[in-house]
Amino acid sequence: MKTTTEAFNADHTHIAAFNVPGPIALGLTPSIDGSASIRNCKFGRYTQVSARCRMDDVVLDDYSYLQQDCDLASVDIGKFANIAAMVRINPGFHPMDYATLHHFTYRPTMYGMAAEDDADLFAWRRRQRVTIGHDTWIGHGVVIMPGVRIGNGAVVGSNAVVTKDVPPYTIVGGVAAKPIRQRFPRDIAQALEATAWWDWDHDTLTGRLPHFRDLRGFLAKYAP
Prior knowledge:
Elements: E1 3-8, E2 14-20, E3 31-32, E4 37-39, E5 42-43, E6 48-49, E7 54-60, E8 65-66, E9 71-77, E10 82-83, E11 88-89, H1 119-127, E12 130-132, E13 137-138, E14 143-144, E15 149-150, E16 155-156, E17 161-162, E18 170-173, E19 178-182, H2 186-195, H3 202-207, H4 215-222
């Protein structure tokens, strides 16, 4: 399928609207598989969306990617996010304080019960946005519930269900997800986050690529 979308620069200024014909080489325009379903989304540079993903009201910032069969709604994803296959972020949820859980109460048009759906309910859902930080890794089959914030550098293990915020550089897993360990000692994590390397331009990243493979050398060069 073709879909109209737009890209933005690091400062979220608009680049251009265009039709996405399917996978393309990574560059200033996003690479979006032709089988993906995209609605009301914004994409940064060097982004990639794999087959059969569904995205509604999503910001996917520079260098981030989704593997196949992801389903995302109302989520802001930072730069360099690594999102594995079959991840569900901000799944739709039913109002449990109604007399019934069934969605005929807020989707009555499907059943010929009303001329319009419940706009207030859907607006409330959209306000429960999820935030995924920079340089994150969301493992296979993860579910992230509404309103959750995932900190920079965090890792969520496969098949976890995340119901609470995850601090930066923390590895979590399980149902419901709980901390397993820290990626780095606190001082190293703070120094690494302080470099804000994800905001470097493409040429700078390219020139400093070898330094990323030596953590302590990297921090010696670039930590404030």
